[in-house]
Each structure stands twice: as C-alpha cells, then as structure tokens.
From TrEMBL:
<dbReference type="InterPro" id="IPR012349">
    <property type="entry name" value="Split_barrel_FMN-bd"/>
</dbReference>
<dbReference type="InterPro" id="IPR048574">
    <property type="entry name" value="RUBY_RBDX"/>
</dbReference>
<feature type="domain" description="Rubredoxin-like">
    <location>
        <begin position="170"/>
        <end position="206"/>
    </location>
</feature>
<dbReference type="InterPro" id="IPR002563">
    <property type="entry name" value="Flavin_Rdtase-like_dom"/>
</dbReference>
<dbReference type="GO" id="GO:0010181">
    <property type="term" value="F:FMN binding"/>
</dbReference>
<dbReference type="Pfam" id="PF01613">
    <property type="entry name" value="Flavin_Reduct"/>
</dbReference>
<dbReference type="Pfam" id="PF21349">
    <property type="entry name" value="RUBY_RBDX"/>
</dbReference>
<dbReference type="InterPro" id="IPR050268">
    <property type="entry name" value="NADH-dep_flavin_reductase"/>
</dbReference>
<dbReference type="GO" id="GO:0005506">
    <property type="term" value="F:iron ion binding"/>
</dbReference>
<keyword id="KW-0560">Oxidoreductase</keyword>
<protein>
    <submittedName>
        <fullName>Nitric oxide reductase NADH:FprA oxidoreductase</fullName>
    </submittedName>
</protein>
<dbReference type="InterPro" id="IPR024934">
    <property type="entry name" value="Rubredoxin-like_dom"/>
</dbReference>
<dbReference type="GO" id="GO:0042602">
    <property type="term" value="F:riboflavin reductase (NADPH) activity"/>
</dbReference>
C-alpha cells in the first residue's frame, strides 16, 4: 500500500467544541464534512482519548468553526496540542456561545456552525458523530485555511490523535507533543519546538 496516497486527500482545519457540566472544551480537527443537505448534517471524527469527545457526547451538541488562512497559530497550538484535561483552552481565546450554550472561538474563523448530535459510529480508535445543523453563519469574508496550506505555508504538524497522522520517514528529533521534526544530528539543549513551544526534553531521536 502506498500510504502517500492519503496525503492526496483534501481537508480544511476546524475547531469543534462544547460545554458539559459547566466545563468548556474543544479541539482542532481536519475531519469535518457535510454529509446531507436537507436537513443539513455534518460529520466529525474524534479520537476516543480526546476530552472534546466526552464533552460533546455529554452535551449532545457541538459548535464547529472553520479556521481562516489568517488564523493565529497560537489558536491551533492551544486547541490542537494540549488536552482540555490539562488546560482551560477557552481562557486562552476570545469566544462567544451559541444557542446551545457551547463556546466557539471568534477570531481567525471564516464560518461557524452549531449542531445537535443525531448519530454515532464506533470506529475502534475514533468515534464518528453526525450533527444536524441548527445554526450557520459567516462572521468574516476571510479565506479558509486548507489542511495543505496549514502544512506547507504555516509549517503546521499533525499529532497522533488525528486520523490523518502518519509516522515520518525522516531522521532527526521528533517532538513527542506535536510531531514536529528537527532534521539534525544533534539536538541543542535550549531547543524550543517552533510549533507547540515545548522544550528539548520533549524530543525523541528518530532514525
Ligand atoms: C491539524 C490537526 C488536525 C487534527 N485532526 C484531528 C481529528 O480529525 N480528530 C481528532 O480526534 N483529533 C485531531 N487532532 C488532534 C486533537 O486536536 C488533539 O489531540 C487535541 O489535543 C485534543 O484535545 P482534547 O483532549 O481537549 O479534546 C488534530 C490536531 C491538529 C493540529
């Protein structure tokens, strides 16, 4: 199997979020798609380890924003490279709430949706949720961030929890948090990951 074929799939970059039992949370995903038009429904795929899945299933609803190409990488670091079990992500972002009471980031977004969860499919490591759209809005005329541009222009990486994650063939040192790879023979002691900001102790040698 040529696993590079998976790199030919196109996606956007999104943040899905919810509030459950007074806890706000959310995470970056690339696996959002429209599945029907009438009624309008979206699908999302979430890793079972993600706190966001617990919150969305508890709430029975979720908010989803489409990130714009001018999004601050800090927002992606906040929502894509740490768990809501360890951090209050929405304290680090400006946000509003939808009619279901779910928070959503308001900066660096090109569109937003609110959904009620209607269906669930267990796919081993992940759960696919179907959400019926109850609100949709275009808060700015920004261009959307594609998954390809996230990698090529913003130098972003994909952590292991994402369904599209692939092991790298490159030699060097890999950040155990975000997957960033430093191609070098030696890892400087004061090295800081340019993607997620972790120090050299989070890096592991790959060869
Ligand atoms: C570009 C990108 C795409 C991602 N796509 C997904 C995805 O589709 N599904 C998923 O479960 N996690 C995905 N992730 C990983 C989660 O955002 C990440 O594991 C997050 O820390 C989970 O936080 P939580 O535990 O608060 O839910 C992605 C991360 C990035 C940076």
């Amino acid at each position: 199997m040529n696993t590079k074929a998976f790199f030919k799939l196109s996606y956007g970059v999104y943040i899905v979020s919810a509030n459950y039992e007074n806890k706000d949370g959310g995470c970056v995903i690339n696996t959002l798609a429209q599945v029907t038009s009438s009624p309008a429904r979206l699908s999302i795929a979430l890793n079972k380890n993600n706190e966001t899945l617990r919150l969305i299933e508890g709430a029975g609803s979720f908010s989803a924003v489409v990130l714009s190409e001018d999004v601050d990488m800090e927002l992606i670091k906040t929502f894509g490279f740490q768990s809501g079990r360890d951090a209050e992500k929405f304290e680090q972002a400006s946000y509003e709430r939808d009619l279901n009471g779910n928070p959503y980031p308001t900066e660096g977004i090109a569109a937003r949706f609110s959904c009620k969860v209607t269906d669930r499919l267990d796919v081993d490591t992940h759960v696919i949720l179907i959400g019926e759209v109850t609100e949709a809005d275009i808060p700015s005329d920004s261009q959307v961030l594609t998954y390809a541009d996230y990698h090529s222009k913003k130098k972003g990486t994909t952590p292991k929890n994402a369904p599209s994650y692939q092991e790298s063939q490159t030699k060097g040192f890999r950040c155990s948090v975000c997957g960033y790879i430093l191609e070098a023979d030696e890892l400087p002691e004061d090295f800081i990951c340019p993607v997620c900001g972790k120090d050299a102790s989070y890096f592991e040698k790959i060869d």
